[in-house]
Amino acid sequence: MPNDEQSEDWPAQVQRELRRFAEARDWPRYHTPRNLLLALVGEVGELAELYQWDPPTPPPPDRVAEEVADVLIYALRFADVAGVDVTKAVAEKIARNEHRFPPLNDRTP
Ligand SMILES: [Mg+2]
Predict the structure, then answer these.
(1) 9-106 belongs to which CATH class?
(2) Is 90 in contact with 40 (CB distance < 8 Å)?
(3) Which residues cross the membrane (predicted)?
């Protein structure tokens, strides 16, 4: 797994690890974009379930971490199979949002 010195393209590193994991188990045949997307939605649901009630009972931090990991894993695997360069896509999206939503001190009064 990436450490601080290798973290610049950690999504690609994680995707390579996830690809290796899936290939070692002959799972790529199940890893269609549709299947991975539905699995991602399921994991988002599991994360949401931890915050289901209002006022929420603080969920156990280890359960939150586990579900966040599941969401990220499926999102990264989906992007890999769908041919999305995650690092580039996120950088471009952040840049677009910087333009769309300027900081308060850059706005004309
Ligand atoms: Mg889960």
Answers:
(1) mainly alpha
(2) no
(3) none
C-beta of residue 22 within 8 angstroms of C-beta of residue 31: yes
Could you tell me the distance, in angstroms and rounded to a whole number, from the CA of residue 72 to the centre of ligand 1? 11
Distance 20 CA to ligand 1 centre (A): 20
Could you tell me the distance, in angstroms and rounded to a whole number, from the CA of residue 31 to the centre of ligand 1? 17
Please report, for the chain, the start and end positions of each structural domain, with discontinuous segments joined by +: 9-106
Give the number of residues written for the chain.
Answer: 109
